[in-house]
Amino acid sequence: MRARRLVSVLALAASLAGPAARATIIIVNTDGPGEGFNDPTAAAPVGGNPGTTVGAQRLNVFNKAAQIWDAILGSPVTIRVQASFDPLTPCSATSGVLGSAGPNTVESDFAGAGFPATWYVTAEANRLTGSDLEPGFDDITAQFNSSVGTATCLTGRSWYYGFDGNEGTSGIDLLPVLLHEFGHGLGFLTVTDETNGFYLSGQPCIFDRYLQDDVSGKHWFEMTAPERVASAINTAHLVWDGTAVTAAAPHVLGKRPHVVVSGALAGDFVAGQAVFGAPLTTGGITGDLVLVNDGVGTTSDGCETPFVNAATVLGKIALIDRGTCTFAQKATNAQGAGAIAVLFINNAPGPAPAVGGSAPGVTIPVASVSQSDGGAIRTALGSGAVHATIALDPAHLAGADNANKLLMYAPNPDQPGSSVSHWDVSAFPNLLMEPAINPDLSANVDLTYQAFFDTGWFPQLTGVDPQPGREVAFSNGPNPGREGGTLRFRLAAASDVELSLFDLGGRRIARLAAGRFEAGEHAVPWTRRDASGHRVGPGVYLARLKSGSQERAVHIVLVD
Fold first, then answer.
1. Cα–Cα 20 to 30 A to 30, which of 86, 232, 255, 457?
2. Residue 270 DSSP one-character state
3. What is the pLDDT of residues 405-420, one digit of tens each?
4. Which helix (H) or strand (E) holds 239?
5. How far apart, in whole angstroms, are the C-alpha atoms of residue 275 and residue 131?
6. Nearest-angstrom CA–CA distance, 383 and 385
7. pTM for the whole thing?
8. For the residues 245-255, what does the mean pLDDT come to?
9. Cβ–Cβ under 8 Å, residues 488 and 503
10. Handedness of CA 182, 186, 188, 192 (dihedral sign)
11. Which CATH number fits domain 255-396: 3.90.1720.10, 3.65.10.10, 3.50.30.30, 3.10.180.10?
């Protein structure tokens, strides 16, 4: 069964010149002469990107993102990404769409499907069945904004086409934006409509099996349509119920920030953390809260200096309303007034916001609280002093519920194009599949890999050959793991075998076996050491088995 479906997951707000020879993800350039990928404007090579024109650099970054995902997924079937750079709307001087991507088609009830009557994006379905189910269609459509940095679109910003994450304060790093959007096209999304709860053509998708409301305990494929609508806006209670993500989360996420208040108000509030300023600690920083007064417009937004109440802010925690100017400017102004920390109040309903931006000069801790929690603090200040400790909660993870299940983005009201199909913004460090780009992202796909592991991208050997009739079966376990694990393979006949491990850059780090092996089951342990005996770091590695003319590969996820 097949349904055509273009899913446009809207933009994140605000040394390879081409694909590798074995790449199974290829970029289909649909731009016309002189524009987009074919823009002839001269450009100096930057950050490992050797292109000498704007168009060539754009295409190189697309190919770099394709190579990264190809190395991780290892699909035996070519994945085609129809891509273009065009002027996109809406876009203004201060905000705009960066790009969008999504799957062109979805499939169900194909050979190799893990669940019946369940939609899979075509790229994953092709990988599971081992053939191209839609030879007449490109698998993913991706469109990105060529107007970024013009007078009418994100003025003062510009795309950064390097591979090294060194975009600076005004650059927008294209590589993580592409990795994010390709992630949607590869299956990190639901095709169920969260605004009415209706399945696409009456069937859930594989993503829905792992969306769970941690209040009712139900997964989306078990709910009624009205229950899904309610779950999509059940902020801080829509979670990912997948074993791979849950197992890896403690090794990726930091501890949850919180604000403990006393005095005129007692409470323990979940907080958002900044990507700049002094790192929060479990001991925290303690002081009295003072609402800033900058004397202009919304006097509590902290955008103008000097503060009218600078003498009162000195040595205290500055309480500042979000809005008007950037987090970085507000924090810089508060530090200049002598504040020992900054606590932002969100200006919209929903959870405590992540605090993005870049402020190298800010050396004090910076955090945020929700609009409702901030309102309670503001009201209490009218009755007396409010003391606060801004710290990390050692018992909980940033971006997870109390059972360590990762939170999905579920704001109330719903945000079409962002809700449900992203991790929650409370995750810290920031994750690739959050709904906004953050400066601490680069080429790391973090927990997106484990989400794809949960949804079945990597079928594992479980005592029987998962694809009957093949001569070689290959798997690794435990996966994810801490110590490497055991690689298992089955041979139908005696064969010369080579088993090697590679990093995602394609470099061989160890050869685990080489020689003649008899027919039957074999197990090769790996103790997380490279060829020199050094312990390798956490990340994703590729184990490749060659047996005669056949080749099999599995991905190994190592966590600390």
1. 457
2. E
3. 999 999 999 999 899 9
4. strand 238-240
5. 43
6. 7
7. 0.79
8. 88
9. no
10. positive
11. 3.50.30.30
